[in-house]
Amino acid sequence: MGTTQLESVPEPKYWHLKTVLSEALDRDFAVGEVLPNERELAARFGVARATLRQALEQLELEGRLQRRRGVGTTVAPPRVGVAVGSTGHSWPGESADGWEAVDAVEAVPAGAVLALLGTAADQPVHTVRRTRVTQGQAVAAELLYVPAASVPGLSAIDAPAGPARARAVLRELQRLALDGQDRSVELGSARADDAKELDRLPGAPVLLVTTRYFTAEGTAAVSVATYRADTCRLTFGDAGMEITETRAAS
């Protein structure tokens, strides 16, 4: 990145600096590379550090940069698309969907989930926790709720707990014939456990993607996936709606 003095421009100085920095990121830096510190960057471009911070913050919002504790400001990894509302349907865990199984327990879910499942208010269900990882960083956390009736062949002896138990629930679920699924997206706030897993503060903005999976008998499972709002972009097209992950900034 060479030295550049910004001249008088019609748009705000930080916005012009953002454009210059963006071009330099494409030309001079690799994914994951750490940028020079703010003092050095401000001197190179002949701007105040406050102007530089505005430009860096805008690039962070656009998914070009990420700020990581103990590391600094680095170039963000490429975006990864996650289809929402497309015509293709598959069970969770099929076709290398990018999610990693973390744990599985039996618990009574929240009332909203019970309503979607259509199960009794006091009936525990298998709750599988998974994490979606991009470039080695968690960008989303999911809770998958599976009633016992959907996985009658599940054995507690074969996989009593942990990731093995989660994978066993997924395998049994995939034995069913999937008739279809629907999804909804809404803005929400990160719960404490999700915030910790996604390296955010509790209450940080997130996108909640709720998916219902159907068989001939009705709703077989419900997924509630929590995406960091700063790692996703919603796009609409002929194939439906898409969530595009950007990066996981600190």
UniProtKB/TrEMBL annotation:
The name this protein goes by in its record: GntR family transcriptional regulator
Domain named HTH gntR-type: residues: 11-78
Matching InterPro entries: Bact_HTH_transcr_reg, Chorismate_lyase_/UTRA_dom_sf, Tscrpt_reg_HTH_GntR, UTRA, WH-like_DNA-bd_sf, WH_DNA-bd_sf
Keyword Transcription regulation: yes
Sorted UniProt keywords: DNA-binding, Transcription, Transcription regulation
Species of provenance: Streptomyces polychromogenes
Top-level taxon: Bacteria
Pfam families according to UniProt: GntR, UTRA
